[in-house]
Write a structure and sequence with these properties.
This protein is α/β, with parallel strands linked by helices and 297 residues long. The protein has two domains: 185 residues, Aminopeptidase (3-Layer(aba) Sandwich), CATH 3.40.630; 108 residues, Alpha-Beta Plaits (2-Layer Sandwich), CATH 3.30.70.360. It has seven helices and 14 strands. The chain has a four-stranded parallel β-sheet, sandwiched between helices. α1 crosses α7. The longest helix is centred in the first third of the chain and has 21 residues. It is elongated and about 80 Å long. The N and C termini lie close together (11 Å). 39% of the residues are buried.
């Protein structure tokens, strides 16, 4: 079995000076506490429990990478190679509320660069070709690919262009976030981006990017893992629900290989990637016991 997690956070060096770790009202606050330092501690503790009680009866691989928050560009092949040798993957990412995660959306990132023709906005207006105007058309086009019923979203998150108000802008750009709930939508949306063309023939359009993580779909193997986890949680005295999320993790990679993957087995809390990031301390022990039970079975 593979225990999967990451050691990196979104917080830059020096954050502890203004966001120190602290205990307050049953919560532990601090950068990375929820996403996902607590999950790492839970994994290590569960393994320690199994060793101490002589309950470790099968090989367990603990893989903690350092590049998950930037898309796992280096660790992905390592994760996939190890997962292919395992019968199950347990991901120590934070819980969704109190629930574990049986489905996640896949993610994609694109950048669109447009080159137009600069000109004086007052003297030679007709000689210019506005890259910003072309970008506006492109933003409308790609945003129209969103299909909420399919769980497909296309969001232009940041954009820019131009130089001076009295100059027809010769350059513009946009960065686009894409989320997919179905694996088949990955190639479809990639083809759509590849076919993008400028409406104004004087402008040129360059598109880079693609699908980064395939979706973690709710497949039978994952459902079986969840059902077992739910039964173990009941024996421990708490209810374990399941949930899906629009966020992605390294569990997306393992699930796409067909390996049964149960995600969100880490800490309960709130504020991942935010200043109020924290975990609820009282949930650490029962959820760690649950993990130990899953690994012992």
């Amino acid at each position: 079995m593979l225990l999967l997690g990451h050691l990196d956070t979104v917080w830059p060096l020096g954050t502890l000076k203004t966001m120190p770790c602290r205990l307050s009202d049953g919560r532990l606050f601090g950068p990375g506490t929820l996403d996902m330092k607590a999950g790492v501690a839970m994994a290590l503790t569960a393994l320690e429990m199994l060793v101490e009680t002589g309950s470790l009866e099968r090989e367990i691989v603990l893989l903690l990478n350092t590049d998950e928050e930037v898309g796992s560009p280096v660790s992905r092949p390592i994760t996939e190679r190890l997962a292919a040798e395992c019968s199950a993957v347990y991901v120590m990412e934070p819980a969704q509320g109190l629930a574990c995660k049986t489905a996640r959306k896949g993610t994609g990132d694109w950048r669109i660069d447009i080159a137009g023709v600069s000109a004086h906005a007052g003297v030679d207006f007709e000689k210019g070709a506005s890259a910003l105007l072309e970008l506006a058309r492109v933003v409308e086009t790609v945003s129209g690919w969103t299909d909420l019923k399919r769980g497909l979203t296309v969001s232009v998150g940041v954009a820019g262009g131009g130089s001076k108000t009295n100059v027809i802008p010769a350059a513009a750009w946009a960065e686009v976030d894409v989320r997919i709930a179905r694996k088949a939508d990955g190639p479809r949306i990639e083809r759509k981006f590849a076919k993008l063309k400028a409406s104004d023939k004087r402008c040129t359009l360059t598109v880079t990017g693609g699908i980064n993580r395939p979706p973690m779909e709710r497949l039978r193997g994952t459902v079986r893992l969840y059902q077992r986890a739910r039964a173990l949680a009941s024996d421990l005295g708490f209810v374990l629900e399941e949930a899906s999320t629009g966020g992605a993790s390294d569990g997306n990679f393992t699930a796409a290989l067909g390996i049964p993957t149960l995600d969100g087995l880490g800490a309960v809390g709130e504020g991942a990637h935010a200043r109020h990031e924290s975990i609820v301390v009282e949930h650490l022990a029962p959820r760690t016991a649950l993990l130990a039970g899953l690994l012992a079975g």
